[in-house]
Amino acid sequence: MSRSESCSRAWLKICEDWKILEHAFNKSPFILNADQIKKSCQKFKKTSEKEVRILCKQDTREKRPDIFISNNLFLLPVKNGCYNIIKGEGYVDIPKINMGTKIYSSKLDFILDTSKIGNSEMQHLDYAYASSLIRTFMNDNSLVLTIRGRKYTPSFSFTINKQKINVKSVQTEVDAGYEGKEQVVLIEAKSFEVANIIIRQLFYPYKQWQKTTNKKIVILFFEKSISSNTYSIWQFEFINPDDYNSIKLIRSESFKIVE
Q1: Distance CA 74, CA 196 (A)
Q2: What pLDDT digit, counting tens, does each position of 12-66 carry?
Q3: Is 203 helix (H, G, I), strand (E, B) or coil?
Q4: ∠ CA 175-52-201 to the nearest 5 degrees?
Q5: Which is it for strands 82-87 and 183-190: parallel, antiparallel or unpaired?
Q6: Which residues contact 5 (CB under 8 A, 6 or more apart)?
Q7: 93: Cα separation from own chain's centroid
């Protein structure tokens, strides 16, 4: 049984036990906690069928369990061990970049040897930053690395389908954050191609760092393609900072770095 099948089997049991599909999603999200998930899945043998962290990791539309897909549902963490199940669109497309790949000349005057070892998201981001690609894309030479890794959010609220969602102390992860004189650039990175991502990965850090600075918060999605050796960047914006679904693609470009 694949991970996807295990996840779907577990969530079918969870939905049946707690009568989730009987909930009036047009009025409010369904609130579910980790203890309920554990109780429903306690007799399953596989880790992928009972581990809360694995069951709740639904980073793309396709990673959702079958019962979520067929009922147009998605999951958001709202505090430690507590989740909201919401009906609607929780993901944003990462469209193909149809414009040609630009050749970008590294601003470094020497060749980096260590950056070529491995295939991690942070490694590719660090190389793009060291080559000044991030600064060039943002047209901001003042950007310096100031944010990285996992942190817990302060309390904040927002709306989805006019329903208010309250978040408190949820763990977020920013692959890299760069602060300049007038803006803070937050980046979610992947070392493989994806067609979509859950908006939460962009929105929660955006809301989190809005609480810390009055500077403009810019959201980027970054992808390194191993097959084509290209670095692609998408810039998104939340038209309404308090509306999860107000996300809009501003621009995107693909680059090949030459040393």
Answers
A1: 14
A2: 999 999 999 999 999 999 999 999 999 999 999 888 889 999 999 999 999 999 9
A3: helix
A4: 25
A5: unpaired
A6: none
A7: 12
Tokens read off for 201: 């990965």
Distance CA 131, CA 106 (A): 5
DSSP designation for 101: P
- The Cα–Cα gap between 211 and 153 comes to 9
Q: Which of 135, 237, 229 is nearest to 176 (CA)?
A: 135
97: buried, middle or exposed (CB in 10 Å: 19+, 13-18, 0-12)?
Answer: middle
| Tokens 């600064």 sit on residue | 135
Token pair recorded at residue 205: 């850090």
Handedness of CA 221, 226, 228, 229 (dihedral sign): positive
| Torsions phi, psi for 237 (to 5 deg) | -140, 145
The whole-angstrom separation of Cα 63 and Cα 200 is 14
- Tens digits of per-residue pLDDT, 56-105? 999 999 999 999 999 999 999 999 999 999 999 999 999 999 999 999 99
Tokens of 20: 């989730």
- Write down the pTM of the prediction: 0.95
For residue 187, the SS3 value is strand
